[in-house]
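PROTEIN ENTRY
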Amino acid sequence: MIDERRAVYAGVGTRELFVAGEGPAVVLLHGFSHSADAWRPLLDRFEEAGQAAVAVDLPGFGAADSARPGAWLPQGDRFVGEVIAQHGRNTSVVLVGNSLGAYLALRAAASPQRLPIRGIVPTGTPGMGWTRLVRVGQLGAARFFARATVCTPRPLRAYLADAVIGRLIYGNQASRDKKMVRTLSSQLYGRGDAHKLLVQGLRMKAEVDGEPAITGISCPTVLVHGRRDRLVALASSQGWHQAIPQSRLVVLDHAGHCPQLDEPDYIVGISRGLTAGDADQSRPA
């Protein structure tokens, strides 16, 4: 059973989903506009395996407090640093992140604070390249979608949002979970919400693009990228692989931007391999 509780990290009230089990704990960081619910398929599997794991709502997302004015990434760093310190009090944690959460995982692993991190699994990691859809079509397509919602009946808006988000986060449409899709797409159902999300997303992208190179990562690192990722280019994870000594890169042919949704068993296997100190563990039997 996945349990839920309130917690406070770096002064930010949040919700976390967790399963009890043996340590080291696996700490799960979601992507932009998502929430801890993105990790429910993995949490179910961690519970079955008796592995301690926790997923948190990042500042401004899910049921967490709103982010403070100003740059978001420093706030995210402080928040994640306290999450790691709390759950790594007795033994170091394995940090698994998707998209924005993957970028935060890299930053945490490079932190001069020497956080108790045993290994990291960044998936769909931005920072070194976006797909053509994002680079060329982001502004025009998003503005068109935002304008279309103004005069489109709500049921049709919901249908369009579900279709678009499903295509963006899943690589294998046969594995699409309607409930999971709607945790994201429902943010676009209301009039004006699409434009608000667009502005927030462009601001976040600009922050990531404007950051200096991340260096100094020495913990075991297994980068995972879906070949069908429609948002972050495979070249980004390839670039991180080249930049991080002794890292490993796994490309999943049928996964999209959220490999934990397309192939949860694989991500669980890699994560548990790192808890045991095995960075080379491949697909579980």
The first helix runs from residue 40 to 49. Residues 3-130+212-276 form a domain with the Rossmann fold fold (CATH 3.40.50.1820). Residues 281-285 have pLDDT under 50 and may be disordered. Residues 72 and 204 are 8 Å apart (CA to CA).
